[in-house]
Structure prediction request, 744 residues.
Amino acid sequence: MQVTGSERIVELDVRTQDVDINMGPQHPATHGVLRVLLRADGEILTGAQSHLGYLHRCAEKIGENVDWVQYLPYTDRYDYLSAMNNNLGYSLAVEKLLGQDAPERAQYLRIILVELNRIASHLVAVGTYGLDVGAFTPFFYALREREMLLEIFERICGARLTYTFIRPGGVMNDAPEGWFDQVAAFTEVFDQKWPDYWNLLVENKIFIERTANVGVLSEEDAIAWGATGPMLRGSGVDWDIRRDQPYLLYGDLDFDVIVGKGYRGSVGDCFDRNYVRMFEMVQSNRIVRQCLDRIREGEVQNEEVGMSFACPPGRSYVGIENPRGELGHWLVSDGGKIAQRCRVRAPSFVNLAVVEHMLPGCMLADAAAIIGSVDIVIGETDR
Amino acid sequence: MGIVQFLSDLLPETIPYWALVLLGAGIAFAIIIAFVSVVAIFSVWLERKVAGHIQSRLGPMYVGGWHGWAQSIADGIKLILKEDVILTDADRPLFKLAPCIVLGTALAAFVAVPFAPGVVPADINLGVFFIVAVSSLTTIGVLMAGWGSNNKWSLYGAMREAAQVASYEIPLGLSLMMPVMYFGSFSLSQASEMQAGWGGLHWYIFSDSFWIAIPSFVLFFTAALAETKRAPFDLPESESELVAGFHTEYSGIRFSFFFMEEYAAMYLMSAIGTALWFGGWNFPGLYLLEGTALFTPLAIAVFVVKSMFLVFVMMWVRWTVPRIRIDQVMALGYKYLTPIGLFLVLVASVWEYIKFSMMGV
Prediction:
C-alpha cells in the first residue's frame, strides 16, 4: 500500500488478504447441506461459489429404471416441503404422455391439496427466513399453523411429509368424511393468524433494515438467470404458470398474482421475495375456499389409468408452479412400462445459481439473508 | 469493610490483619460465585420458560417435577461430565485461559454491587466506574477465545465482539453520567441510599429529573444489551451466520463458563440499572422494618427481584426481534446513541446546575 504525500512517498508494510470461508455443508443458515465457499474482505464478501451434490440420490436415473407409477414416491423426495406439488408435476407429465385426464373431483382435490401444500411450504420458508435474520419466534408460530395442515394431509393420505397421493389419472382415494370441514376450519384460522406473522416479522423495523435493498435482483437478471416462482415475481416480473399457462382447473379460479413492488426498498430485494411469499399464502387460501365451494361428488380416479401401464411412445414436458418456482418434468417414452428419459427441472437448483451473482459486495450477515430469501430445499437442488 | 471487621471480632487477636483480609476476600468471593451460579442457573431456566411461552410452547416440563425447575441443574451436570475437547491446532494456552478470564471479569464486577444497606462485598466509592471498566475486560477473553480456537467463524465472532463492545462502551458510560450527576456520587450504594425518600419510592426514574432519567435509562438499556451480547445485538455468537461465534469450538465446562458469563453479565447490567434508576433495595413500606432482622433479607430480595425483572425484559426483547447487521450496529452506536448521550449529558448538567444553584435542592 502506498500513501502519496505532497513531497514523499511512504511505503507502509501493510498487506491485506481476503479470507476464504466455508459456509456449509454443515451450517445453520444453509438449510441443509449446501456448501457455499465465500471469499471475504473482513465483513464484506468479494466472491462466492456454491458447491452442490451432498444430497444427490440419482432421482432422475432411478426414473429410467422403475415403472411409471413406481417413480412417484421418488418425486416426494426432491422438494420434501411441497411433496403434493411434485406428485402433481410428475402425474401431469405422465397423463400428457397417456393422453388421459383426471376426473373433475380429482382435479379440485388436487388443487386444494396443492394450494394447502403451498401454504405449508411458504410457512416454513417465511419462518426459517425469520431464523436466518435472527428472529426465532415467528418460526414457531408458522410451524403451529403448519401442524394443522399436516394433520389435514395425514387424515387424507396417512403421511405427513411424503404423500405419494396425487398420481397419474387422479388421486389415491377420496377425502374421508368431515375432511372438507377441517380444511374450511383451517382457512378461517389461517386468516386470523396471518396478521401475526406480518406484524411480528415483516413489519418489524429491524427485519426491514435487514432485508430491504439487500440482494437486489433486477428484472433483466431474474429472467436471464432463469429464476422462477417468488424469486421471479419478487423482481417484478408478472408471471405465474397457474394463470399464464393454466393446468388443472386454474383457468376457472379467481386469484391474483403477487408481484414485488419494492414495498420497503427497491424492487427485487430480499424483502420483496418474502413479501411475495407472504401474500401468496393469502391467495392460496382464497383458491382453496373457491374449490371447497365448487367441488362436487364424483370419481377421483380415471379408470383407464391403472397402477401398471405402458405409455405410448412420445415425449412430454409439463411445468407447474411449485412454491419455489417452475417444476418441470421432461419424460420420454419408447412405448414401454419404463421411462426412457426422466429429467427434472428443479426450481431451487436454477434459483440457487443466481446466488453467486448476488453475494459479492454484500456483508457476511447478508449471505444468510440472501440464501434464505432464495428459499432452497437441498433435496431438490441435488435430487 | 464489613467482613474483615466481623472476622476480627470473631477470631483471636493473634491472627495478623493481612490474613483477615485474605480470608474475608475468600469468603466474599465464595459468596459471589455461589450467588452468580444460582442466578445463572435460574436465568437459564427462566430464559427457556420465557422463550417457550412466547413461542406458544411450554419449555422444560419434566426434570425435577414442577415446571422442569431442575432442567438447568441437569444441564450443568451434563456439561461438567462432558469430554473437554481441545483442537490439535488450537492455541492451547489462549484457548484454556479465555473462559477463565471471561468468567473471572464478570465475577469481579459483582464486587461493587450493593444488594442491601451494608451488604456490598466492597463499597468502592467509584463503583459505577469500576463495574464498567472491569466488565469490559470480558472482550479480551472473547478475543483470546476467538483467536485461540483457530476457526474462522470464531475469529469473526471475536472481532465483532471487540468492535461492538468498544463502541458501546461510550454510550453506556455517557448514559451512566446522568444518574451520577443527579446523585453527585459514583458509588452505587450511596446512590441507592439517596433514593430512600418518599416512603421508599423516591427513585431516580420518579424524581424531579424523570424527564432525563427515562431517556437515559433507554440509552443505558440499549447499550447494556449490546454490552452483554444479547439480541438484537447478539452478533458475536449470531447463530445463523457464525454457527456459534467465538465459542463454536468450546465444549463441556469451558463452554458453560461462557454461558454463565452471559447470564452473569445480564444480571450485572440489570443490577446497575436497578441501583441507579429503580431505587436499588428501596421499596414502599420497607423502611418500616428498618432495624429488625427481617430488613436486610427483604432488602436483598427486593433488589434481586427488581434486577431479575430487567433480566426478564432482556429475554423478552431477545425472543421478539430479529438481529441487526454489524454495520447497522456500528451506525446505531456512533451516529445515534453517542450523540444522544452527549446531548443528554449537556441537558442534565445544565438542569442539575440550575437545581443546585437557584433552587438550592
